[in-house]
Amino acid sequence: MQVEQINEAIEAIETIVHFAPGKITLHRFKWRERMFIVRRTLYKTSQREGENRILLFSVKCDSNDVFRISFNLLDFTWRLESVTMNG
After folding, report:
1. 14-20 vs 11-12, strand pairing mode
2. The predicted structure's pLDDT at residue 16
């Protein structure tokens, strides 16, 4: 198995999410004109940047690739932070 870490991807992405009280579930995202369906969320966490709070998600899609995605609560933007490609 070949593992390739792509850091500093940091690109804006479009998402389809479900917001419920106290919970955000990421279902799909579009990156480089391709739609990815989230099959599994590996973890969710948050971090502070001054007054701002960033939610971080690590997800798997149809492949074994792992995508690290952030949601900025101040400006409501979604970003792809990094990709780990397995295969």
Report:
1. unpaired
2. 97
